[in-house]
Amino acid sequence: MHPGILLLLELGAARPELLLTGQALTDQGRVVTVMLESGWSREQLWHVIAARPLPHPVRTTVGAIIAARLRAAQAYPPPAIAADRHDTPAWDVPPPQSTSSAAARSVSEALTYRALVECVGCGVPGTAPGEDLCPACLGWPPCRTCPGPTPRRAHPDGDGRCTTCASALTDQPEGSSP
User: Fold this and answer.
1) Coil, strand, or helix at residue 119?
2) Contact 7, 48 (CB under 8 A)
3) Are 72 and 64 in contact (CB under 8 A)?
4) 125 has which bridge partners?
5) Please, which domain of life does this record's source organism belong to (predicted)?
């Protein structure tokens, strides 16, 4: 078994509401294994997955919620692990291995960062501006101009277009149509 699968099974044993099985366990276990190999610690991944409660009620799968949390954590490199070097003078401390400023951020900053805030209603990443819920949970209507089978949602007080379609229209040169 991959180390990521083992970590997820341990997490599921400790927190049964987060137990993954089947394909979700395999898929997310691979993601966790890659994150472990790239420098994330078991404790950091445990925190990323289990520190926040699940939305109530859960309107998606727990696997989808865990996948979203892992994707958000992967948005940046693994956090730098701060060693206790209080006895070592600053000039004897080796430089960080990565030259990336994002890699030098603190563990707490990295673990609390969320690329998209999860909806408290369904757990899907991406809440409406200033809201705790996503546009779907808020009951916003589908955008009337979005192409494709799954249009974005438009604010009910707007003109029926989502912010993406509305900004695309304002970005058009004068005299051209969207």
Assistant:
1) coil
2) no
3) no
4) 118
5) Bacteria
